[in-house]
Predict the 3D structure of the following.
Amino acid sequence: TLSQDLDGTFATDAELAALNVNDADSDPTNEYNTGVALNGTALEVTDAGGTLSQDLDGTFATDAELAALSVNDADSDPANEIQDISLVNSNLSISGGSTIDLSGIDTDTQLNETEVDDFVANNGYLTSVPSTTRSITITPGMIASSAFYSGAALGSVGGWLHPCITYPDGVTSYVIISVPTPSDWDGTSMSIKVLYASDGTTGDFQFSAASRGVLVGQSLSQGPGGGSFVLPVPTGVDILSEATGTNFGIQVTNQDVINLYLRRLGASTNDTSTDVLNVVGFVIDYNTL
């Protein structure tokens, strides 16, 4: 048989019955507060032992003190806080107060042209509109057979038979074409580039790109105007070359159609070539608005 004494661990019934649960004064009634009241500015708490009081006057304002409080400023005038401000010439004034002279502030800065240019350039402003060049390309296949004159003809050049306009030597031969005037043309000079080759290298070609602009309602019988320019001798037979002429006689700046007379001046003394000129295309360059 095993035995364990628990007397040191648990209380017996006799020990619990003998336990005194009262506080030191053994009075069960004196722990109760019987009243709480505000007497004037004093907070009072009453229990069996009497009444305790705490004056709150130094902590809170009474109704009488609040009623007696003055919210007016020292001069007790409700109107003298309203003021007007005015600017006369360079004098800034406040009514009933002082005036400040603003003439010392620079309101009319004067810049010279260089300073203005520097300011504009340094702040990203667009100082000029870049010119845009566009082109009109004309190839031999675009030209009607009825537009070839005085020996000019539609032909081919090179081993792969590139279409071309052939201009013979010794005569002024030409083709005539019409192109609508570009709506975005700025009216300044146009240039024409001639892409060409030759069956020989005997000399230079003299070429003319004359033109006439015509408005709707005008006669188409007006003659062209324009100068000529040199197509330098190619470096070899059937070698593609190019040359550009400018100011080729556009007569007005607001025409609707431009008639072009593209001529080899084969009878001119400036045309020193005895070879056939083969033109494979024209490129007209113009500036936009």
